[in-house]
Amino acid sequence: MHPSQVLTVPGLEQVYDALATAIDTAGPEKTELFLVKLALMNANALADPGLLQSHIEAALKDL
After folding, report:
1. Number of alpha carbons in the 13 Å side-chain half-sphere of residue 48
2. Where are the extended beta strands (E) located within 1-63?
3. pLDDT tens string 7-56
4. How many beta carbons lie within 10 A of that of residue 16, not counting itself?
5. N or C: where does the chain have the smaller number of CB atoms within 10 Å of the terminal CB?
6. Distance separating alpha carbons of residues 50 and 12, to the nearest angstrom
7. How far, in Å, CA of 46 to CA of 40, rounded?
8. Which of 44, 61, 11 lies closest to 36, judged by CA?
């Protein structure tokens, strides 16, 4: 993670709310597709496969 680009707690809450709303809008039958599309778009924005891999590993912990 790039320290100068870390979100504040209110920023994270805003992202969480937007994501929860989008998941609700997509509906249960399209949630997985939405999340994959979002992940690929964010991977492209990161432009760093290694960083994305570390995010995937972190997200899988303690599910």
Report:
1. 9
2. none
3. 999 999 999 999 999 999 999 999 999 999 999 999 999 999 999 999 99
4. 10
5. C
6. 22
7. 10
8. 44
Q: Residue 34's closest CA among 48, 20, 45?
A: 20
DSSP 48: -
- The three-state secondary structure class of 4 is helix
51/28 Cα distance (integer angstroms): 29
Give the pair of three-digit tokens for residue 49. Answer: 């496969």
- CA distances, 19 to each of 13, 29, 49 (Å): 10, 16, 22
pLDDT band at 5 (very low <50, low <70, confident <90, very high): confident
